[in-house]
Amino acid sequence: MAAFIKKLFKNRKSDSGPASVDLNQLNPDDAKDLDTLIEFAQSAETNSQKAAAVEKIPHIKHLIPLYPDASAALRNILAQRISQLAQGSPGQIQDAKNALAGADLQTLIQQLCEPSPTDHEQVSADTDPAQLLKLAIEGKTAAVRLAAAEKIEAEDDLLSLQKAAKGRDKGVYQLTRKKLQALRQDQAEARKTQDAIDELVRQTQEHARTDNMQLYSARVDSLQSQWRNLSAQASTEQQTAFLSAMKECQDRIREAEAASEREAESDRKQTERQATLELLQQTLDDLKASVDPRGPSLSSLDALQKTQENRWMEATRETEVGKAEQKDYQALMHDLRQYISAVQRLHNQQEQLDNLLASEQPDSGQLRHLLDDVDWPDDFARPEAIAAAARTLGHVQKEKKAHASDQKEQQKTLDQLLDRLETALEQDHFAESRQLHKQAQHAFNALDHKHAGSRHARLTLLGRQLKDLQDWRGFATRPKQEELCEAMEYLATQHMEPEVKATHIKELQQEWRDLGGSSDQSLWQRFKQASDKAYEPCQAYFAAKSELKHVNIEKREAICQQLEAFAENADWHNVDWKAVERIHRVAREEWREAWPIDFKANRPLQKRFDRLLKQIEAPLNEERRRNEARKQEIVDQAEALISHEPLQEAMERAKTLQKDWQAVGITRHREDRKLWQAFRAACDAIFARRDAQRAEQAAADTAAVETVRQRISESQAQREQAGNDPALLRNALDTLKKTATPRKLPADVNEALSAERRALESAIGALERSQQTADWEARLQRFATEQEAVDSTRLPESLPAPREIAVRLEIATGQPSPEADQELRMKQQVERLAAGMGSSNPDTSRPETEIERLVDCWCAQAISADDAEQLLPRLLQVLAQWKAG
Questions:
Q1: Statement: residue 403 has pLDDT above 80
Q2: Residues 528 and 472 in one domain
Q3: ω into residue 619 within 30 of 0, thus cis?
Q4: Residue 627 lies in a domain
Q5: Over the chain, what is the mean pLDDT?
Q6: Does residue 313 sit in the same domain as residue 352?
Q7: How far apart are CA 343 and CA 670, in angstroms?
Q8: Which of 81-90, 576-585, 652-661 has the lowest mean pLDDT?
Q9: Confidence of residue 13 (pLDDT cuts 50, 70, 90)
Q10: Do 380 and 441 reside in the same domain of the chain?
Q11: Considering the domain boundaries, does residue 685 fall inside one?
Q12: What backbone phi and psi angles, to 5 degrees, belong to 282?
């Protein structure tokens, strides 16, 4: 307000002065009007008014005399106007030389109207940056300054130029400001690009290490696409890091593809093996169920055997096959081979068998011999010839019983089985040997002790040979079993989540079972011990988890009990609804947190909990609907206040409604949001008129800001004109401090105001420091020729030696000491630190106080000629450096 009143009185004061002149009504060609323009350009209140008058003056000879007494800002305007006239009307230059006398004015004409042709030549791409900066600040014409400013690119130089041109050269200032803005924008874009590159490199490195292979390749393609847009701006380190991480990603993709191919190939072979087993099983089932009336086809069976053998061989090549699967194939193929062999034998004996059956009284011995030679498998359907021969010889089961009762015949059968078993063992036919050993064992068990004793040793020996053959077959699976042992032992040493570890243990155990176990008990014990050791932490975890489930069931039971107690005892007509809502929310949260649980034990608790929640939700929903109705009434009242007058009363009532709104209890979230939006819109409309009043206040603040800007410009001009007069600088500082500021000062204006105050204070301090230093130097120089009286109260009890004075002065001013005095300097610093820690006077730590005391100590004692000759120049040099700052 004070600034506004001051401006008002200033405008009234200038009503009778030049400011009241209407420049548009003045004719520069009229001598009287021209004098008025020149006077207005000199005495107008503001630079803008002076500039308007300068723009109306048409001749250089009238502008040159205004230049010497003009302010820095007006000088720039005059220089631009003179340069414009000199370029448009070169003849005015000579007219000005003829009209104006005095060497100073002639020099100004030459400087302002006739710039050196080398000025433009110096402004080129090869011009030294320091010279460009000098030309942009001190160039004689605006064209030269602008040309030089156009060539400046360094940020520090642009900042210096902006500071120098501010308030003095509007064109250069604005150009510099735009270049700085563009430079900072480019820097921001560059930083943004670098951040994007760093983020992309980080994402690529993380992707190279991730265990999640879902959409892995697509993510790699996306990262590569992003990199193509940024790679040109990437540094060498960033490119190296990205390419290294991308190589890891590509390696993992190739590994994943290879693993996928291996898995697909393994699945395909698994499918082939399964199909082979199913086909063999189906074929054998069909052969066991029935037989072709024409007899089994040997060629078809032989072709089937060979094709399935080749199929199985291809499906097991370079692939691990489970022991159970291999065992099934061998058993099926063994049965098929037996059947084919029987068919072959039947074909060989078919003609003789048919002849015997065709005779009226076939020889039973010969017929039995033929059936024994054919040895048709019992599990398969018999061809008609075999069935007819069996019927001829009598019932098969009676024949087997009769044969079994004959010990000698059984003994003969056992001998034959043992012979065949021995042959099969020699040929390493494990499946056949195992089958023959079972048959021999059954035949041996059918003999009595007398007939069995002589064959017990041979049967035992062959059994051991069968065991050795079984162990040799197990040799093929031993490396894999040893790998499983090592894997289980390694797993036992790893620290991982128990759930994950238990899964790995189960997978390894299943692989062991798929191999069919091991006959080597030591290997099995090793695997079992490793499994037990690996499962120990899991066992503790699952025990704790089981206990945790029990505890959580108890927690849920307690929650249900608390809810039941609350629901039964709550006074729904006088209850804290927010507390009820909080209980309802917290109960659900605690119910979810009570996890994991035993689902079977939780089932009745869950039903009980859901019922209790519904029991509490019913009154809650009723209360929410009542509160929503209350808020709707508040919204209706607020909407009625939108056009209410007076405004102050409407605002007060709106504030009351806001308090009423806050006092309303619980509501549903979605409904509350709708009501709040309507209420907020009504209140915004009510307070919109208040915003208009604030806009008026903002306009007043803007005017005050302009006043502050003007005071800053005036202070800058006074600071430049003050020279070495600290009184003028203090006066400018007092004026700047008394300038009224609005409530909110823009950041740039506030910064400029603070900077100008600091500049004034710095200039005042520099002048005072210079004067004070000059006084100290004068005292030291006078003391070299004459003694002076010194106030003894300012002296210490014991005066320091001249060399100590020199070292202390160097310490106080922060100057280095000679190498020879380093030990003395260290000692003085320690004493100074100790004295400073024990002193409570802040003035003793000021350099000026210390320097004053040291000068007094020098002037208060007799200095030898040698010390004076050696140390006085040193003291004066230190003071000179202190003065220079």
A1: no
A2: no
A3: no
A4: no
A5: 78
A6: yes
A7: 85
A8: 81-90
A9: very low
A10: yes
A11: no
A12: -65, -40
Instruction: For 426-485, give the DSSP string.
Output: HTT-HHHHHHHHHHHHHHHHHS-HHHHGGGHHHHHHHHHHHHHHHHHHHTTTHHHHHHHH
- SS3 category, 419: helix
> Under 8 Å CB-to-CB from 562, ≥6 apart: which residues?
587
Contact 276, 312 (CB under 8 A): yes
d(CA 863, CA 879): 19
Kindly report the pTM of this predicted structure: 0.32
Residue 666 lies in a domain: no
Question: What is residue 67's three-state secondary structure?
Answer: coil
- One-letter amino acid at 219 equals R
User: How far apart are alpha carbons 286 and 300 in whole angstroms?
Assistant: 14
Q: Which residues contact 33 (CB under 8 A, 6 or more apart)?
A: 26, 27
Domain boundary among 432, 452, 476: 476
Reported as a single tens digit per residue, the pLDDT across 124-180 is 656 777 777 777 777 766 667 777 787 787 888 888 877 887 777 777 888 888 888
* Alpha carbons 480 and 474: distance in angstroms, whole number: 11
- The Cα angle at residue 756 between residues 754 and 757, in degrees rounded to 5: 65
- Residue 704 CA to residue 78 CA, distance in Å, equals 28
437 in a structural domain:
yes
Give the 3-state secondary structure of 7-27. HHHHHHHHHHCHHHCCHHHCC
Residue 493: exposure state from Cβ atoms within 10 A (0-12, 13-18, ≥19): exposed
CA atoms within 13 A on the CB side of 30: 7
> If you search the block for the tokens 């003994």, which residue do you land on?
411
User: In this structure, how many other beta carbons lie within 10 angstroms of the beta carbon of residue 504?
Assistant: 16
Cα separations in angstroms, 500 against 507, 547, 831: 11, 20, 70
Residue 141 three-state SS: coil
- Is the bond into 646 cis (omega within 30 degrees of 0)? yes
Query: For 308-337, how does the pLDDT look when each residue is reduced to its tens digit (9 = 90+)?
Result: 888 888 888 777 778 778 888 888 888 888
Alpha-carbon torsion, ordered 820, 824, 825, 829, to 10 deg = 170
Q: How do residues 458-491 score in pLDDT, each as one tens digit? A: 777 877 777 766 665 555 667 787 888 888 888 8
Listed in sequence order, the residues at least 6 apart from 551 whose beta carbon sits closer than 8 Å to its beta carbon are none
The token duo for 406 is: 């004959």
441 CB contacts (<8 Å, ≥6 apart)? 459
Q: State the pLDDT at residue 6.
A: 38
Burial call 754-780: b when 16+ CB within 10 Å, e when fewer: eebbebbeebbebbebeebbeebbebb
Q: What is the DSSP string of 767-789?
A: HHHHHHHHHHHHHHHHHTTS---
